[in-house]
Amino acid sequence: MPSSTANSHEGETPAPYPRNTHAGSGRAFKSYEKNLATLQAELGNIDLADEKLAKALDERDLLASFRDHFIIPTDGKCIYLCTNSLGLQPKRLSENMREVLAKWGQEGVTSWFRGDAPFATADDRVLDGLAALVGAKRYEVVAMNTLSVNIHLMLAAFYHPSGQRRKIIVEEGAFPSDMHVLRSHLALGRQTKQQQQQQQQQQQEQDEEDLILIIPRRPGEATWHLSDIVAFLHENGQDASLLFLSGLHFASGQCFDMATITQAAHAQGMLVGYDLAHAIGNVKLQLHEWGVDFACWCHYKYVCAGPGAVGGVYVHEKHTMAQDSLPRLAGWWGQVKHNRFTFNEPSFKPSPGAMGFQLSTPSPLLLSCLSSSLSVFVAAGGIEPLRQKSILLTGYLHLLLEHDLASQVQVVTPKAVEERGCQLSFTFRTEGVLAADVLKSLEDQNVMADVRMPNFIRVAPFPLYTRFVDVWRFVGILKEVLRRPHVGGQEEEQLQQEDNNEEG
Predict the structure, then answer these.
(1) How far apart are CA 432 and CA 428, in angstroms?
(2) In degrees to the nearest 10, what's the CA dihedral of 103, 104, 109, 113?
(3) Of 22, 168, 202, 346, which residue is the least packed, with the fewest Cβ within 10 Å?
């Protein structure tokens, strides 16, 4: 961790980041505004939009040196605001992959069990880092498969309709891939039963749709009110077996109060699972403390483990420590370790905890990518200092957008820090301005962001490598871009295709 004086004015004590910043706590609300106002006053009551403020924030940034741990696109010139879609590559990653390839090349099959870092224990070596990021015990997490595959596996273990409790509750506008998984899982379960009953296909499709309950947003709003979610669970919980929500919504950037929602769902007798693709590495998570039953995520966004990175799973110990173990789809790597290579076991005995849900041999190459990124989180001090900077960094961005572009841009992500992470999603107040056209102009100015339906631009300054001056420059570029006419542009079908192409 870099020393504080290395990034401060003439050795003075840098302004502290806001404290107490985990999702679900309101104690850090607006504290970043106070910090910024204090610094503005120290610098001679300069304006919020003065570049001097951004530079002063960078000089005081305790995480500033970690930018050098990553490869910044276009030879470091890019303003990269798209970690919500794909994190940047850690510089150490390519060397770690070369080490794995060299070990394979020099040791052959013996690389599985001999020498430094044997391949057979590669999955075990990432558990501490993952447990720290999601707030879990070591044996409650595992790195395996990819996100959609893992959701299927968790549904096989946790969705068991019985009597009146047959439905799954999700939020309106959940990520398309999650909905594909849920609907196909339900359809598969209905298929055998309805073949036996010789029911028509039309009835099958109707039953499938009826088994998914949608938590709606209020008309005309892009985000949810916590009170509405809790009320929906109270009113519909008796019909549901499972609540499956995003931890942080991919389009709006809203972070849900998972502690309160989990408690409310459990009070109605439901099990609770989360898709944490946009939450892990972004906000502070306490899955074990909150009593979450299971969760799945990817590692290619804020964890920066690379495109197509191995996924992650959490299963609360209460489901794996009991004698009547959960039903599951099993595979050889999920067995207790001493049984994996005997090849004559008549029955499957799972490994303790989440590792008992593994199916196939883990990839040492993909796990080396994950290890590379987790090592940066460890060096930075874990999620707490990242979250502290993130609140200030994204808060600064939000205030600049309000200061310079309030008449043109509408931020749809909640302003309360406990209801968002790095990401801000915004749309446009002027009719005819299309996000896709604006994005193209931003890309021409070396800014990387992305668009989502209905007409959002998503930007996510990430505390490990985004500078405050990057945020300041982005707002200036956006201001210039919006002076130009933006009429016509990308069709809704193309935006929908982009949604479907981004898993998790």
Answers:
(1) 9
(2) 40
(3) 346
